[in-house]
Amino acid sequence: xxxxxxxxxxxAPTLAQCPADTGAEVAFAGRSNAGKSSxxxxxxxxxxxxxxxxxxxxxxxxxxxxxxxxxxxxxxxxPGYGYAKVPDSVKLEWQRHLADYLQRRTSLRGLVLLMDxxxxxxxxxxxxxxxxxxxEMTVHILLTKADKLKSGAAKNALQQVRSQLREWEDLxxxxxxxxxxxxxxxxxxxxxxxxxxx
Length: 198
Ligand code: GDP
Prior knowledge:
Blueprint lengths: L5 E7 L11 E7 L5 H8 L7 H4 L7 E6 L2 E8 L10 H17 L3 E9 L6 H13 L3 E6 L6 H14 L7 E5 L8 H13 L1
Parallel strand pairs: 2-4, 2-5, 5-6, 6-7
Antiparallel strand pairs: 1-3, 3-4
C-alpha cells in the first residue's frame, strides 16, 4: 500500500461522529510522548501529517487519515493521554471515547500500540491491551526510540516485553522501532498491509 499518499480526512470527538464504519482501518495509540506523531510521520514519509493531530483542540480527538483518495483505507490517530494537566473528569471522558471506539468500530482491523522502549507497559498500555484482549483485537507493539539504547540493551528490552506478554502471543506482535534512525519501517508496513488488505 502507498502510505506516502496518506492525507488528513477528519477529526471526531466521539464514536458517533466518526466517518462511516466501512472498509478497513488501523489505529495508532500511545501514551503522550511515546513517539506516535514521529512514527506516523516517518511511516507516511510526511513531515507534518501527524501535526494535524497535535493542533491545539485536536489532541483529544480521533484523527482519521485516508490512503490517498481511497476513503475505505484509513489510518487513525487516537488521542494519547498522559499529559496530567487535565482534570480527571476529562480524562475519564477520553477513556470512555477510546474504549467505545475500540469496542465498537467494526472496520478496525488492528491496533498499533507505541511504547517508549525505556518505559514499556505503562498503566495506559495495560489498559489498551486489556481492551484489545476483550475484543480479541490484534495488536502490534512498537518499542519506540530504540536508538536511545545500545543494540544489545534494545534486544533485551524486546525479549523482556515479549516474555511479559507471552499469554497474549496469539494476538500480540512486537518490534523495535526508531523514527530517528528510520529503523523498523518495513516491518510496520508489512503488518499494516496484512491488516488492511485482508
Ligand atoms: P507523541 O506525543 O507520542 O506524538 O510523541 P512525539 O512523536 O511528539 O515524540 C516525543 C518526543 O520524542 C519528541 O521530542 C521526539 O523528537 C522524540 N522522539 C520521537 N521518536 C524518536 C526516536 O525514534 N528517537 C529519538 N531519539 N527520539 C524520538
